[in-house]
Amino acid sequence: MGFEQLAALKEQLAKQAKAAPRAKTRRAPPKASARPAKPVNEPAKPVDPVLQAIAKLQKRFPQTFPKNPAPKVPLKIGIFQDLVPHAQEIGLTESVLRDAIRTWCRGTRYWTCLVEGAPRVDLAGQAAGHVSQADANRAQQLQAHRARALSRPATAPKPN
Questions:
Q1: How many CA atoms lie within 13 A of 21 on its CB side?
Q2: Which candidate, 138, 121, 134, places its Cα nearest to that of 83?
Q3: Domain coordinates in residue numbering, the chain
Q4: Of 121, 83, 115, nearest to 101 (Cα)?
């Protein structure tokens, strides 16, 4: 097909488009999202009760349990005993509260705040003691141990 034929075809199509009455165009159905829609009757995934407990503690005691990305603060020694009277008010059992405190105090984000001489905080966010040298050393050991464990390659099982 030559250039002249293409030009003539273009003119012919343009005339047809002008002459034809505009028909209502049907919209294409929306594209499916990357995630399939969740069926209405499917139950929601269960949320870890410890994470729910930590969220409740963060809401009730924001200075003591700051939300990420704010750095964690060293907790007062015996903070669990201070929290027990508030457990029912917050809606937590003692065992879930204990697990929440254990989880909160485990991990690099908490261990990095344990610096010798740093003030420990009570439920009101007020200073209640200081981090001892032994506590700071223990936190450094825990961080080093975790770093070694993460840097070690997984060993392959031995063939039989």
A1: 2
A2: 121
A3: 49-151
A4: 83
The topology under which CATH files domain 49-151 is: Fertility Inhibition Protein O; Chain: A; Domain 1 (1.10.1710)
| Orientation of helix 49-60 relative to helix 94-104, angle to 10° | 80
pTM score over 0.90: no
Pairing type for strands 119-121 and 127-130 reads antiparallel
Cβ contacts of residue 110 below 8 Å, gap of 6+?
72, 104, 139
Tens of pLDDT, residues 31-89: 655 666 656 666 677 788 899 999 999 999 999 999 988 999 999 999 999 999 999 99
Q: Which helix (H) or strand (E) holds 121?
A: strand 119-121
**Around Cβ 76, how many Cβ atoms within 10 Å?**
19
Q: Which residue in this structure is represented by tokens 């485990």?
A: 106
Nearby residues of 135 by Cβ (< 8 Å), 6 or more positions away: 74, 114, 116
